[in-house]
Amino acid sequence: MSDLLKKVTRPTLHRGLEGVVVDETELSVIDGEAGELRYHGYRIEDLATGADFEEVLHLLWHGHLPDAAEYEAFTRSMAEERPVAEGVLDLVRELAAQDAEPMAALRSAVSTLSAYDPEPDADPEDLDAALRKGRRITAKIPTILAAFDRFRNGAAPVDPRADLGHAANFLYMLTGEEPDEVAAETFDMALILHADHGLNASTFTAMVVASTYADVYNAVTAGIAALAGPWHGGANQDVMETLLALDESGEDPVTWTKDRLEAGGRIPGFGHRVYEVKDPRAVLLQERSEALAESTGDRKWYDYTTSIEAFLMDEQALGERGIAPNVDFYSGSVYYQLGIPIDLYTPIFAMSRVGGWVGHVLEYQANNRLIRPRARYVGPEDQAFVPLAER
Amino acid sequence: MSDLLKKVTRPTLHRGLEGVVVDETELSVIDGEAGELRYHGYRIEDLATGADFEEVLHLLWHGHLPDAAEYEAFTRSMAEERPVAEGVLDLVRELAAQDAEPMAALRSAVSTLSAYDPEPDADPEDLDAALRKGRRITAKIPTILAAFDRFRNGAAPVDPRADLGHAANFLYMLTGEEPDEVAAETFDMALILHADHGLNASTFTAMVVASTYADVYNAVTAGIAALAGPWHGGANQDVMETLLALDESGEDPVTWTKDRLEAGGRIPGFGHRVYEVKDPRAVLLQERSEALAESTGDRKWYDYTTSIEAFLMDEQALGERGIAPNVDFYSGSVYYQLGIPIDLYTPIFAMSRVGGWVGHVLEYQANNRLIRPRARYVGPEDQAFVPLAER
Q1: Among the listed ranges A173-182, A311-320, A368-377, B7-16, which one has the minimum average pLDDT value?
Q2: Are residues B218 and A225, on separate chains, in Cβ contact within 8 Å?
Q3: Cβ-based burial of B113 (10 A; exposed 0-12, middle 13-18, buried ≥19)
Q4: Edge-to-edge strand order for the sheet containing B28-31?
Q5: Can you give the pTM of this predicted structure?
Q6: Do B13 and A21 touch (CB under 8 A)?
Q7: Does the active-site annotation cover B343?
Q8: Which of A380, A366, A23, A243 is nearest to B29 (CA)?
Q9: ipTM score of complex
Q10: What value does the mean pLDDT take over residues B212-237?
Q11: Which residue, among B331, B351, B347, B174, has the nearest Cα to B240 in the 3D structure?
Q12: Which of A232, A247, A303, A343 is catalytic?
């Protein structure tokens, strides 16, 4: 094996795959310099203010916004798929009793959904079946999450209501009360804003899984697993915990932030691998944060975030270094103002991003190629084996 | 956004990441031209015939083969971790009752294990904790699988036996009877041979998940999801189903194979993206297939496989085209001769490959970099939004 090391050594090491193009997509495009995000060519601002989450799912999965008849059929099929099997609820109840992390509960419950799928023998290469499975999963995730939160609070799950949209129905199942219009619209917008964002780690994970023709349950379960990581889906929770620490201190937000930075602490929610300017999703969520503040009469959280942003961007000169608020900086306080428990922020991210996962899986499988990279071997070349008894 | 398409267009598209080096590793190296595979510098032949699966796990996770004291401590800790929580068994029973696919049951049960982990608050960057979690999962997978198979056959699970090795204990839990030496050794060798193999799709999936600092439960659950795909872990099952079809026909294996190819059918178990010659694991499993044939007195399956291989390699000239038997071509019939149900072959692959998944996760996280590639946007550049009511 004298030439082995040479043979497997290749010139470029792409750790993190930064800048490596692995696929062509029609789903979304990010202009990190301009701070623009589009889904299938539509500006995120237009979709966020003019469409609902179901329309955006239709766009990501079918390649176009639905007309009236398509919208009616699509939303009805989504609403019909909301209930989950008793066996899934049993698992969710047990995991709530075990005080499981919400992402672990969601991952496990979504994984078990496959056992109740009405098309267990679908051809793995049948993309229509894959779309139906993806739609079922997407419809059921809110039901699972709301049930988990109610179980752990000693309450019974609230059955889904087919007359409510995806966003409003989740808030209804979570609280047992129909949300007001500002809350429902804000949550719907948050779902739209998080639905797709190129090949982030969870979307890429779903694609790698799908490239083996494992079904959509496998791909989405794996996507949830990746999103659970603190370097990916956990950041909005970090932001809110930081804001709560500030609130607890009773100090002025700028003084507090300055002290924290001087003490070596950090402020989460700034910087993104693909944006050099303010994340367009942060702009939209900041507006919703203000709308919520006006609706509830409590401007505290909105003021904290805007004060910190202004201080960091100008006085700390983050802006000059190309670091700006990302989506997580505003989503945390928006969810908080909606009354959503902090440890559900990442699962809510999954509730939205499943749209992108399913969309990218369908797109990739339509022109599939097994994803199998290489590693450069840097270990010992040739070790002589010695049996255990002689070691 | 006039320059957007230009900005996101990059020269090379790496679909499938073929030949793209994404990491450095000390775990395993494959010489596809020579048909060599080494774990940490040790020839796979030496490990397969001189070590047991637990020694190989120690090698992959700790970077060296254990001495006597390390072996004693490692095997004891593995044996102690075999039992699973009652809640996990409840889920496995329910999934067996639902006639779930074994890989779906394994994926779901492994996912729920995190809720019972004794270190739920471990720092995600603590690699020692990650190793302990990986060891727990690896120890429990055979218990889950054997219980699933027994539940679906209406039998009660058999408790693990701490005095048996990993391989022998699985066969014991599956059948309720202690396996003979040939069976235990063969199964142990099969586990060793499948434990690691570079950055195949499931190992890479586990790494992408781990790159977000999601914990090992997330990484392994996602690895199982990828392995479930028919283009990855499902191939040995395909081989066995092909051999059963041949057996059913009552025909001569060469005639049958010739007819099948002429009718446009294919023979699974040949060809591999990284081997140009016979997979060294296939060589070893072929020997075990013969040993099993001698042990049971039934040479049928061994003869089928060797006859088909000789025909395809020589008469069909596959060998000249660089296509040769892969590991799946012989593992299927070996498992069949061990009396293992065909739909457990892929889960057994997971039972072994979890060693590589955990090893690569530990290695990658020791020098972590979030994995986030790019896609080239090829969709519509700028679509004017029209509200639903006007579509």
Answers
A1: B7-16
A2: yes
A3: buried
A4: B28-31, B36-39, B42-43
A5: 0.95
A6: yes
A7: no
A8: A380
A9: 0.95
A10: 94
A11: B331
A12: A232
